[in-house]
Design a protein that fits this description.
With 94 residues, the protein is α+β, with helices and mostly antiparallel strands. The relative contact order is 0.33. It has four helices and four strands, in the order E-H-H-E-E-H-H-E. It has a four-stranded antiparallel sheet. A hairpin with a 7-residue loop joins strand 2 and strand 3. Helices cover 40% and strands 36% of the residues. The longest helix has 13 residues.
Length: 94
Protein backbone atom coordinates (compact mmCIF):
# COMPACT_ATOMS: atom_id res chain seq x y z
CA UNK A 1 0.00 0.00 0.00
CA UNK A 2 1.04 3.60 -0.56
CA UNK A 3 0.14 6.24 2.02
CA UNK A 4 0.57 9.85 0.93
CA UNK A 5 0.26 12.53 3.60
CA UNK A 6 0.11 16.19 2.58
CA UNK A 7 0.17 19.34 4.71
CA UNK A 8 -0.66 22.56 2.89
CA UNK A 9 -0.22 26.09 4.22
CA UNK A 10 -3.00 28.24 2.78
CA UNK A 11 -2.76 31.91 1.89
CA UNK A 12 -4.29 33.70 4.92
CA UNK A 13 -7.97 34.52 4.59
CA UNK A 14 -8.65 32.18 1.66
CA UNK A 15 -9.58 28.89 3.34
CA UNK A 16 -13.33 29.26 2.75
CA UNK A 17 -12.80 29.94 -0.97
CA UNK A 18 -10.38 27.02 -1.21
CA UNK A 19 -12.83 24.61 0.43
CA UNK A 20 -15.66 25.87 -1.79
CA UNK A 21 -13.60 25.17 -4.93
CA UNK A 22 -12.59 21.73 -3.68
CA UNK A 23 -16.24 20.87 -3.05
CA UNK A 24 -17.50 22.27 -6.35
CA UNK A 25 -14.83 20.40 -8.34
CA UNK A 26 -15.69 17.10 -6.64
CA UNK A 27 -12.00 16.11 -6.63
CA UNK A 28 -12.42 14.28 -3.33
CA UNK A 29 -15.24 12.13 -4.69
CA UNK A 30 -13.37 11.53 -7.96
CA UNK A 31 -10.24 10.32 -6.20
CA UNK A 32 -12.26 8.09 -3.86
CA UNK A 33 -13.97 6.48 -6.85
CA UNK A 34 -10.69 5.50 -8.50
CA UNK A 35 -9.69 1.83 -8.56
CA UNK A 36 -7.34 1.01 -5.72
CA UNK A 37 -8.25 3.96 -3.51
CA UNK A 38 -8.67 2.86 0.08
CA UNK A 39 -8.88 6.27 1.75
CA UNK A 40 -8.92 9.86 0.56
CA UNK A 41 -9.84 12.84 2.67
CA UNK A 42 -9.20 16.46 3.52
CA UNK A 43 -8.98 17.83 7.07
CA UNK A 44 -8.77 21.31 8.56
CA UNK A 45 -7.18 21.70 12.00
CA UNK A 46 -9.43 23.31 14.60
CA UNK A 47 -6.77 25.79 15.75
CA UNK A 48 -5.14 26.72 12.43
CA UNK A 49 -7.36 28.14 9.71
CA UNK A 50 -4.41 28.52 7.34
CA UNK A 51 -3.73 24.79 7.09
CA UNK A 52 -5.27 21.93 5.14
CA UNK A 53 -4.34 18.26 5.29
CA UNK A 54 -4.93 15.78 2.49
CA UNK A 55 -4.28 12.10 3.09
CA UNK A 56 -4.73 9.26 0.66
CA UNK A 57 -4.09 5.53 0.78
CA UNK A 58 -3.73 3.36 -2.32
CA UNK A 59 -3.77 -0.42 -2.66
CA UNK A 60 -0.48 -0.61 -4.53
CA UNK A 61 2.09 1.28 -6.59
CA UNK A 62 0.13 0.79 -9.81
CA UNK A 63 -3.05 2.42 -8.54
CA UNK A 64 -1.08 5.20 -6.83
CA UNK A 65 0.73 6.01 -10.08
CA UNK A 66 -2.52 5.86 -12.07
CA UNK A 67 -4.07 8.47 -9.79
CA UNK A 68 -1.03 10.75 -10.25
CA UNK A 69 -1.61 10.79 -14.01
CA UNK A 70 -5.41 11.14 -14.16
CA UNK A 71 -7.41 14.20 -15.22
CA UNK A 72 -8.52 14.85 -11.65
CA UNK A 73 -4.93 15.57 -10.59
CA UNK A 74 -4.80 18.39 -13.14
CA UNK A 75 -8.00 19.88 -11.71
CA UNK A 76 -6.62 19.54 -8.17
CA UNK A 77 -3.34 21.25 -9.10
CA UNK A 78 -5.15 24.16 -10.74
CA UNK A 79 -7.17 24.75 -7.58
CA UNK A 80 -4.30 24.10 -5.16
CA UNK A 81 -1.93 26.45 -6.95
CA UNK A 82 -4.29 29.39 -6.36
CA UNK A 83 -4.30 28.97 -2.57
CA UNK A 84 -1.29 27.01 -1.29
CA UNK A 85 1.82 28.97 -0.29
CA UNK A 86 3.82 26.09 1.26
CA UNK A 87 3.52 22.33 1.50
CA UNK A 88 5.02 19.24 3.06
CA UNK A 89 4.25 15.94 1.33
CA UNK A 90 5.37 12.56 2.61
CA UNK A 91 5.04 9.14 1.07
CA UNK A 92 5.06 5.91 3.04
CA UNK A 93 5.15 2.42 1.55
CA UNK A 94 3.34 0.13 3.96
Amino acid sequence: MVLYMNRYVIRPGTLDEFVREINESKVEERFRAMPGNIKFDFAIPVKDQNMLYMNDLWADEETFEAHLHCDTVEIWHEIKNRYVIDKDCRRYDI
